[in-house]
């Protein structure tokens, strides 16, 4: 990849794609905070998506990159808040965040009706436009405060990158109205397919089956999800594969199919295996036009939904699921490339190597230091010295917004933040090292029951003293209890 200046000498190094197969590292102005609700994020890691590969190979998808100006690539990203606007209340400099990489207009009918992801004026990262919207493969990225999501210290910045595809999975499962006890078939076992299967299980699906044509991908899926898998035969028709799948599962029909490959035969197979009144969600992006078993869909009265990115609440739920350990995304991270070798990461993904390949931000060494600090049990937060030394706008004690480099108040704020963190950070205890999924308030009970409850439900318990019983309540606790 071409670069004419050392990255260390650039103010805002960015990976810019000009046309198919031609990208280079170049400097760009540091984004200015122009709205009081803007935040500036220093990028830590960026994930490689299939769309990145398509752009690199073909110069775009539905809209092509303008070779005269190019486009900064990347949309799956994590980072650290570097500066904030005067009205920002959700985050503070030094916070570690996941980025939802699209800003809607907020004024059109879809936005006002709660479907902002369908906004026709959406400014999505790395979209050629017009107007073009720059992506996240740069040192700094500006976005509105309500499109960054603070993550806990228990989540690494590498894991945080996976919040974006997990949000796609959450959106797909919600559209599929997956319910407890259902059987869900996921067509395609790439990143989105794996996460869809994982989220479907969290929504209560009793059987999750991943279907693919590549044995090695299904092998990973089987270990990652501990789920059932089915190897689709490339030489068979959709009807034949559907019949073989149902026979292998010992079922006559399927409740819900979520298609994540975008391949024609996979789409048809999904329609054939569904029960009457079953639910089908098209998540994978394929050819603009293809054959579709319309008659079968109509005769079964299927509920067919398209799926596009994510909407209200999807990011919040994705962060919560990963943070609580309900979805473990660590095994999905296959490699991490240097910033200047972004094209190598794209090529690696194009060859089908790994599940999720990442690209380090330009200051990746400081983020490695963060990981080491956290591993050592340091609770004072993420590389505050480096974060505030780099701040491009002054904090000025929650007042004005500056547009140029100014860190006069960074040290004051840093010391204030450390004091607050030390003051409010609890001493680690056995119960705080495990993330609880619920809290149970209880009366007195035998200790063996209490221990079993904590282990089986992985929850916290709160003992209500007898003298605090509700008015009129009668205690049924015996005066003496035998140990069981």
TrEMBL record:
It comes from Paraphaeosphaeria sporulosa. This is D-xylulose reductase. SUPFAM superfamilies: GroES-like (SSF50129), NAD(P)-binding Rossmann-fold domains (SSF51735). Pathway: Carbohydrate degradation; L-arabinose degradation via L-arabinitol; D-xylulose 5-phosphate from L-arabinose (fungal route): step 4/5. Belongs to the zinc-containing alcohol dehydrogenase family. Its cofactor is Zn(2+). One of its GO terms (molecular function) is L-iditol 2-dehydrogenase (NAD+) activity. Residues 21-359 form the Enoyl reductase (ER) domain. The lineage of its organism: Eukaryota, Fungi, Dikarya, Ascomycota, Pezizomycotina. Keywords: Metal-binding, NAD, Oxidoreductase, Zinc. GO terms for biological process: sorbitol catabolic process. Coiled coil: none annotated. Its EC number is 1.1.1.9. InterPro entries: ADH-like_C, ADH-like_N, ADH_Zn_CS, ER, GroES-like_sf, NAD(P)-bd_dom_sf, SDH-like. It comes from the Eukaryota. Xylitol dehydrogenase which catalyzes the conversion of xylitol to D-xylulose. Xylose is a major component of hemicelluloses such as xylan. Most fungi utilize D-xylose via three enzymatic reactions, xylose reductase (XR), xylitol dehydrogenase (XDH), and xylulokinase, to form xylulose 5-phosphate, which enters pentose phosphate pathway.
């Amino acid at each position: 990849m071409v670069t004419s200046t050392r990255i260390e000498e650039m103010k805002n190094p960015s990976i810019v794609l000009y046309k198919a197969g031609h990208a280079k590292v170049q400097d760009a102005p540091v984004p200015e905070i122009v709205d009081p609700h803007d935040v500036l994020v220093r990028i830590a890691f960026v994930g490689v998506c299939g769309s990145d590969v398509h752009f690199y190979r073909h110069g775009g998808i539905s809209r092509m990159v303008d070779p005269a100006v190019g486009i900064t690539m990347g949309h799956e990203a994590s980072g650290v808040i570097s500066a904030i606007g005067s009205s920002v209340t959700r985050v503070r400099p030094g916070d570690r965040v996941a980025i939802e990489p699209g800003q809607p207009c907020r004024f059109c009918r879809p936005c006002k009706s709660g479907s902002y992801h369908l906004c026709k004026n959406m400014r999505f990262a790395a979209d050629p436009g017009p107007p073009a919207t720059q992506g996240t493969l740069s040192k700094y990225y500006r976005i509105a405060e309500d499109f960054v999501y603070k993550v806990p210290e228990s989540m690494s910045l590498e894991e945080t990158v996976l919040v974006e595809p997990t949000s796609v999975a959450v959106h797909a499962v919600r559209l599929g109205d997956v319910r407890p006890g259902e059987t869900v078939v996921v067509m395609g076992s790439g990143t989105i397919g794996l996460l869809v299967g994982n989220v479907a299980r969290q929504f209560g699906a009793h059987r999750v089956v991943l279907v693919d044509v590549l044995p090695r991908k299904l092998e990973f899926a089987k270990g990652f999800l501990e789920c059932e898998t089915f190897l689709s035969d490339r030489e068979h028709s959709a009807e034949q594969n559907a019949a073989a799948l149902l026979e292998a599962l010992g079922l006559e029909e399927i409740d819900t199919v979520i298609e994540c490959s975008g391949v024609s035969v996979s789409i048809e197979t999904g329609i054939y295996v569904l029960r009457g009144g079953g639910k089908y969600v098209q998540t994978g992006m394929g050819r603009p036009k293809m054959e579709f078993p319309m008659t079968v869909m109509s005769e079964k009265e299927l509920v067919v939904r398209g799926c596009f990115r994510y909407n209200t609440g999807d990011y919040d739920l994705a962060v919560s699921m990963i943070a609580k350990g309900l979805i473990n995304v660590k095994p999905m991270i296959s490699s991490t490339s240097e910033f200047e070798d972004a094209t190598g990461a794209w090529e690696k993904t194009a060859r089908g190597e790994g599940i999720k390949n990442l690209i380090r931000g330009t200051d990746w060494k400081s983020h490695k230091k963060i990981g080491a600090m956290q591993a050592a049990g340091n609770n004072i937060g993420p590389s505050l010295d480096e974060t505030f030394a780099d701040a491009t706008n002054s904090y000025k004690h929650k007042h004005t917004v500056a547009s140029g480099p100014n860190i006069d108040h960074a040290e004051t704020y840093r010391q204030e933040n450390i004091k607050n963190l030390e003051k409010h950070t609890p001493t680690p205890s056995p119960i705080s090292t495990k993330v609880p999924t619920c809290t149970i308030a209880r009366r007195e009970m035998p200790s063996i029951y209490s221990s079993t409850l904590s282990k089986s439900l992985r929850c916290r318990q709160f003992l209500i003293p007898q003298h605090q019983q509700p008015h009129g309540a009668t205690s049924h606790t015996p005066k003496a209890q035998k140990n069981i």
